[in-house]
Amino acid sequence: MFATLPLNALRAFESAARLLSFKAAAQELSVTPTAVSHQIRALETWLGLSLFERLPRQVRLTEGGQRLFHSLHGALLEVAQSVDSLRPQRSTSHLTISTTAAFAALWLVPRLGRFYARHPNINVRLDTHCEVIDLHQDASVDMVVRYSLDNYSNLYGLCLFDESFGVYGSPEQIAALATRQPTTLISVRWHNTKLYAHGWDAWCAQAGETWLTHQPCIREYDEEHYALQAAIAGQGLVLASNVLVSESVASGLLVAYRPHVQVNGAGYSALCVPGRERHPPVRALFKWLEEEARQSGHALTSSLKLFQDRVAQSQSDHAGRA
C-alpha cells in the first residue's frame, strides 16, 4: 500500500517547507543542500507539480505545496508521537506555549500548579514574546493562547472565554466613590489599539458617568499586570479585563465598580496545528485549559454575586442605622 511512497523525499520536503529553506533543512537532516534540492525535484516530478517557488535567496510554497505540507506535517508528527509513546522509560515531556506576558502572569501561572499536580511528568515552557508565531512553520511551539477577534480556520482551536472590560479598584478606592469622583484613571497602552481603543470613553458612556469631563489624571502602562498592581496599591481605578483581573478579585485585592457595566472585548483561544491535539501531553493541556476556563467563568460569576451580596448588606445596614 505504501511501497511506492518516496519517504525520503517527503521527509526532505516537510523539513524544507517548515523551515522555508533548503539550507536549513539540510542542516536538520544532516545532508547537503544539493541532496535536499534533488529530493524535492524528484518529488515534484513524481507528483507532476511544483511545490516551491524558487525566488532570489528564498523559497515559497505553492498552493499545492501548502496542501501537501499541512497534511504531511500532521501525519509525520503523529507517527513520531506514536513511536515515542512506545519507548520504555520515557523522559519527562516538554510543552511550549506561546501567549502574552499578561495572560501568563495574571491567569495561567497562578493556576499552573494544578496542572503539574495532575501531570507531574509534563513540563510547560512559556514563550511570552510579542511576535505572532506561525505554528505551521515553527514546530518548536506546541500551542498558542491568543487574544483576538480573528478566526483561525487553519488551526485546531478551543475557545476558552470571551472577555469584557470593567472598572476595578482597591476596596478603599471603591468605598470612596460614594462621596467623591475618582481623581486618577489607570489604562493600558496596547500595541493593537483596535482591541482597547477608547475604552474609558466607551465605559463612561455606557455607565452614564461624567468622570472624563472633570479631566482626571490618566496613567497608562504598557502591560496589564502593571496597571493592576497600581490599582491594588490604591493609585486609582483601572479599566481591566474580567479574565485577567479574576485572581485579584477572588483574593479581595480589587473590587468591581458597577460590575454590570461592561465593555465587550475579544476572546481567548487555545490553538495548535491540526493533528498535534492528539499528542497525549497536548491533549492533557487542552483538557485542563477547558476545565480551568469553565471554573474561571464560574468563579467570576461567584465573585460578582459575593460583591453584590456585600453591597446589599451594606445598604441594608445603612438603612437600619437611618
UniProtKB/TrEMBL annotation:
Residues 5-62 form the HTH lysR-type domain. This is LysR family transcriptional regulator. InterPro entries: LysR-type_TF_proteobact-type (IPR058163), LysR_HTH_N (IPR000847), LysR_subst-bd (IPR005119), WH-like_DNA-bd_sf (IPR036388), WH_DNA-bd_sf (IPR036390). It comes from Pseudomonas marvdashtae. Keywords: Activator, DNA-binding, Transcription, Transcription regulation. Belongs to the LysR transcriptional regulatory family. SUPFAM superfamilies: Periplasmic binding protein-like II, Winged helix' DNA-binding domain. One of its GO terms (biological process) is positive regulation of biosynthetic process. PANTHER family: GLYCINE CLEAVAGE SYSTEM TRANSCRIPTIONAL ACTIVATOR (PTHR30537:SF26), HTH-TYPE TRANSCRIPTIONAL REGULATOR (PTHR30537). It holds the Pfam family HTH_1. One of its GO terms (molecular function) is DNA-binding transcription factor activity.
